[in-house]
Amino acid sequence: MTELVRLYGQIAILRKGPQDVPAVGLLLLLTGIAYFAVNVVMVLLLPVMSGPWLRALLLDVTFTVAWYWTLLRLTGRGERFVQTASAILGYRTVLTPLSLSSQWLVRLLGDNETWQLPASLVYIVVVVWMIAASSRVLHAALEWPMAACVALVILELLGSWMLMFTLLPGLR
Predict the structure, then answer these.
(1) Confidence check: pLDDT of 49 > 80
(2) Residue 1: DSSP 8-state
(3) Alpha-carbon distance 84 to 105, whole Å?
(4) Which of 71, 99, 139, 171 is the most exposed place for a label (fewest CB within 10 A)?
(5) Using alpha carbons only, how large is the chain's radius of gyration in Å?
(6) Chain segment 75-126, per-residue pLDDT in tens
(7) For the CA atoms of 30, 45, 160, 140, what is the dihedral angle to 10 degrees?
(8) What is the distance between the alpha carbons of residues 147 and 65, in angstroms, rounded to a whole number?
């Protein structure tokens, strides 16, 4: 287990890629469960979201897996799905505490004129970092130019947010 956390951490800091993840379906399932569990714990500790956050989390996991399954199938790289999806969910599991903590800080300090900008900058850096990590994983999986992978990752994020706010209007 420690080796997996280390591997996902290496993916998060852009030193390894999906090719380093074992192509085992059970690993994808366990990584998805870990991602879900870490998010639940973080949301309970730091009330980042209100409204139907648990349904939003289920939708997030489902959309992420469906996005990468569809993308890899459409591009003829379906055999790389398990490793790619495991890498995406794995590095996100490792970065979730940082991501949700920075999001919580933005909400907490949103009205504080002194700390609003620094908190927002930290959150933006984390989002850019996550886009870079996802793009690197996708680049390794698709072997496409990095710019195209960045565009696909941003499209994934926008699609996920639009789907969540459309299907879960009470989410904040």
Answers:
(1) no
(2) -
(3) 30
(4) 171
(5) 16
(6) 999 999 999 999 999 999 999 999 999 999 999 998 898 999 999 999 999 9
(7) -50
(8) 22
Residue type, 82: V
Q: What is the mean pLDDT of residues 46-62?
A: 91
Please check the confidence at residue 170 and state whether its pLDDT lies above 90: no
Q: Six-digit token pair at 142?
A: 């698709």
Residue 136 φ then ψ, to 5°: -65, -40
Question: Tokens 């890899």 belong to which residue?
Answer: 72
| Alpha helix positions (H), the chain | 2-12, 25-45, 53-74, 81-108, 116-142, 146-167
- In angstroms, the CA 89 to CA 68 distance is 11
Q: Provide the token pair at 133.
A: 């990590």
- Taking a C-beta distance cutoff of 8 angstroms, is the pair 72, 81 a contact? yes
Can you tell me which residue has the tokens 């490793």?
83
Dist. CA 101–CA 127, nearest whole Å: 12
Give residue 138's identity as a one-letter amino acid code.
Answer: L
Report yes or no: 123 and 106 within 8 Å, Cβ to Cβ. yes
Tokens of 11: 């993916």
